[in-house]
Amino acid sequence: METEIFREEALELLDDIEDTLLLLRDDMQNRDHINRIFRGIHTIKGSGAMFGFDEVSGFAHKFENTIDAIRKGEVILNGDYLDIFLTARDHIKVILTAENPSAREITRISQQIIQQLIAVAGPMTPATQPQLPPTKIVSPPSNNMTAPHRAAAVPAPGQPPRKVNQAQDTTMLNLPHLKTLVVEDEFISRYILQEFLFPLGTCHIAVNGFEAILAFKTALVENSHYDLVCLDIMMPGMTGIEVAKEMRRLESEMAVSTPCRIFMTTALSDKETIVGMFQEKLCNAYLIKPLVKEKLYELLKNFFGRPGK
């Protein structure tokens, strides 16, 4: 069922990506169009990996890197590049709908297009890659805001994703009842997080930053604040950074004694953003998409586990 949901969402996103790429021909500097394309590919990449579509995810990752270079101003968009992007978009649809996405001919064409995408963006050397904190998860310090915590995992090649089971493992966590807000515009990630968190307490959903701020402020006013916010970075309208800043401002304004924990959900291409958010003390931890239940629960134990348990 989940794989069919992914296919349907991915096909809709590919239609939107095509329409937006065509709009760019008349306005190649339009930041909204470029960001919209990036978000669509970003979603296909993350959700594809989550549901075992490894070929789709791997190809989309290369595509995403190239669009990200344009988004950051490292590459100037032109008509030739748009043609390559339209070809890449069409090829994702081929992989997605193929009976055997790892067939030799599909793989050969994938490699050809990937080489074109790499030529557009240019190779990324280790010296140009922003460095994230170590991946080891440690117990949070007393203020819970100084040491970043990372959780990341990708399904093994050829292995299907683990089926979500709401009750599995939750009784072993020894966690208090958690009130959680999931802020995510992407349906599949939103669905997965809700399934992971529902057995642990109350889980509310916001599909954009404006809904998130309204829910967060209402909870503070009613003295029933959220223990945890899982917040996507790449969202239309208000970005995750803007939402986190407003949440921290509201907590300061209302003199909240125990700030909520904010876990950012992101992709590897958001390294610079994540590092900046830790420096500004906007978030406590981050989860790399595709989201993995065991890694999320490990973070929850570190931040919310009862002493001595």
Describe this protein's structure:
This protein is of the alpha/beta class. The chain has two domains: 2-127, Four Helix Bundle (Hemerythrin (Met), subunit A); 150-304, 3-Layer(aba) Sandwich (Rossmann fold), CATH 3.40.50.2300. The chain is 51% helix and 9% strand. It has ten helices and six strands. The chain has helices at 2-24, 31-50, 54-71, 79-97, 104-121, 187-197, 209-221, 240-253, 271-279, 293-304, and strands at 150-151, 178-183, 201-206, 228-232, 261-266, 285-288. Strand 4 (228-232), helix 8 and strand 5 form a beta-alpha-beta unit. Helix 1 runs antiparallel to helix 2 (31-50). The protein is globular and about 55 Å long.
* Largest pleated sheet: 6 strands, parallel
Binned strand content: 5-15%
What is the count of distinct domains? Answer: 2
Write the element-wise H/E pattern from the N-terminal end onward. Answer: HHHHHEEHEHEHEHEH
User: And the CATH topology of the largest domain?
Assistant: Rossmann fold
CATH architecture descriptor name of the largest domain:
3-Layer(aba) Sandwich
Q: From the alpha carbons, calculate the radius of gyration and give it in angstroms.
A: 20 Å
Query: Overall pLDDT, averaged?
Result: 82
How large is the count of helical segments? Answer: 10
**Largest sheet: spatial strand order:** 1-6-5-4-2-3
Question: Could you tell me how far the N terminus lies from the C terminus, measured between alpha carbons in angstroms?
Answer: 37 Å
Q: Label the structural class.
A: alpha/beta
Superfamily at the CATH H level of the largest domain? Answer: Response regulator
Shape: globular
- Could you name the ranges where pLDDT drops below 50 across 5 or more consecutive residues? 124-168
Helix content: 40-55%
